[in-house]
UniProtKB/TrEMBL annotation:
Name recorded for this polypeptide: N-acetylglucosaminyldiphosphoundecaprenol N-acetyl-beta-D-mannosaminyltransferase
InterPro entries associated with the record: WecG_TagA_CpsF
Keyword Glycosyltransferase: yes
Source organism of this protein record: Glycomyces harbinensis
Source taxon at top rank: Bacteria
Amino acid sequence: MERLGPSRTNRADGSPAARIRLGGIGIDPLTQEGAVRRVLEALESGRGGQIVTPNVDILAAARRSRELRTIVEASDLVVADGAPLVWASRIARTPLPERVAGSDLVWSLSAAAAERGLRIALLGGTPDGATRPTERAAEILEARYPGLKIAGAWCPPMGFDRDAYQWRALVERVEAAAPDLVYVGLGFPKQEHVTVRLRAAAPKAWFLGCGASIDFIAGYRRRAPKWMQRTGTEWLFRMLSEPRRLARRYLRDDVPEALRLLAEAYRRRR
């Protein structure tokens, strides 16, 4: 049975740090502010990294796939996007300080980047003919944070990661852009696979897998109201917004995974 509690791992700077194990995944016990600080400190030292923000959906996928579990565990920063992870950590008396959503990190990292003159790039979003959510998201971030440097905004076509020509073109764009931060909004696990391959093109950059965040910023999709974000019911809003795409997966995989996670926490508490 999976052990809940602290484990030893290495952070981006190579120093040992305690992660809280939940559902087979080690989570860094950081606030959003602490996560941003960790990234900035690494950038100042010339170190790149990868950020993964597990929720229950990611835990369920990682439980089924050793490959995905390895990718998540090997990431330099792993913070809890899903509220059930925070609840389970508190039940098990190894509390995470707060939920750190990728969709919130995009904003806080952008604010810090504007203050420090860092370059950011956006990769992903939902391609939809004349609609360019990635470019629109970049414009909105620039307007929100004056001085923010947008190094690139790319919305590649479906299958780009399997096409040698398109992949090489993307690598060349990333190399030329020389970003400090890259927001990869392709959905899990595609964005994580792409990040692993793409990091060689920008080894000193930090890559954040941010799911639908680019579409949220651009207004292409609606994010759940603040009260649903606070109460851990954002998943319900997303399921009701896109029932044909999400209902089966959420009800078949994610609800049982959340219950399993909480049950494990209760058992370990005794």
